[in-house]
TrEMBL record:
GO terms for biological process: proteolysis. One of its GO terms (molecular function) is glutamic-type endopeptidase activity. Residues 302-321 are annotated as: Disordered. It comes from Clostridium ragsdalei P11. It comes from the Bacteria. InterPro entries: ConA-like_dom_sf, Peptidase_G1, Peptidase_G1_sf. This is Peptidase A4 family protein. Pfam families: Peptidase_A4.
């Protein structure tokens, strides 16, 4: 699957600079599929992973000046090579998801590293199914400027740009079935200057696709990849706070959901993006980007894995053209 985040013309960058951050929302028209640049939302669990991490296990990682710090992960955190956040699955075998919501602030990524990329999104499906319906934001550095887009996607179709938005804007997103086979993806963007825009995208799904996306719900910070499944340099998102995380009108951690935290781990077993525990409100958490690594070498004192039943694993998402 390929996404199509079109380069923003220099004149639009000039507008953003001229009016100041938080003042301008620019709507994009349909994009040409030949301009694909990023691959989003392919879920890559660590291929050799057959375990979860111990409860509140502390993972040593190299920090600047070779000092050692620790990261406390939520219990039973899964490892992925590109996703971090939370994945819910229904506790009931007959359960199915038909709505999801969440909100976050678009991060102000550093501009001193060209071509870095980051994404945040919510979606239904995609963890154990090849069907995925999602909406979110993507940031990248272009010509020394941090730029952001709102996108939506229905696999296996390419993702579509909707609008360009200023960094530090707040976005509220919801996906829900409205009637029969019609689904609505709605977002409201509020800039730091107070400008607000709401837009709804409607799409039609057949019963088989609805069944596929009903199997999981996600709130994810991601490192996108190219069409060869090679990750782009990850932009430092800092700490993203996800709020109003609801599925089927219930809290993220409601008893009707199996809750699966996910951390992004590099090929050398360094934690790159990791989630916090869920807040006491049951609907908020953070993801934190950890790029202050002086070594990509595997650590000898990395915690030994705990083996578990493979039936509880999240299944890999295969790359789709």
């Amino acid at each position: 699957m390929k996404t199509i985040f079109k380069k923003i013309p220099l004149i639009l960058l000039t507008l953003l600079v001229g009016f100041g951050t938080g003042s301008t929302i620019i709507e994009n028209g349909p994009q040409n599929a030949t301009n694909n640049k990023y691959v989003l939302s392919n879920y890559f669990p660590r291929r050799n992973l057959v375990h979860s991490l111990p409860t509140q296990q502390q993972l040593p990682i190299h920090q600047l000046k070779n000092s050692i710090s620790t990261i406390n992960l939520p219990a039973n955190t899964e490892k992925s090579s590109n996703w971090a956040g939370y994945i819910d699955t229904p506790t009931s075998k007959s359960g199915s998801y038909t709505s999801i919501s969440g909100s976050w602030t678009i991060p102000n990524i550093p501009t001193n590293k060209q071509n870095t990329v980051a994404a945040q999104w919510i979606g239904l499906g995609g963890a154990s199914s090849s069907d995925l319906l999602q909406m979110g934001t993507l940031e990248e550095v272009e010509n020394g400027q941090a730029v952001a887009e709102v996108f939506w996607e229905k696999l296996p179709d390419v993702a579509q740009n909707i609008i360009s938005v200023p960094i530090n804007s707040t976005i509220n997103v919801s996906i829900s079935k409205s009637s029969n086979s019609t689904w609505n993806l709605t977002f409201t963007v509020t800039t730091s200057g107070g400008q607000t825009q709401t837009k709804t995208i409607s799409t039609t799904l057949d019963s088989s696709y609805e069944q596929g996306i009903g199997t999981s719900a996600e709130w994810i910070s991601e490192d996108p990849s190219n069409d060869s499944n090679q990750l782009y340099p990850l932009a430092d998102m800092g700490t993203i706070k996800y709020q109003s995380a609801m599925v089927n009108g219930t809290l993220l951690n409601a008893s009707s959901n199996n809750v699966n935290p996910v951390a992004m781990e590099s090929s050398n077993e360094n934690v790159v993006i990791y989630p916090s525990t869920i807040g006491t409100d049951g609907e908020s958490f953070t993801t934190t980007t950890n790029l202050s690594l002086t070594s990509r070498q595997r650590l000898d004192n990395f915690p030994r894995p705990i083996l578990r039943d493979n039936s509880s694993r999240l299944h890999p998402r295969e790359y789709r053209q």
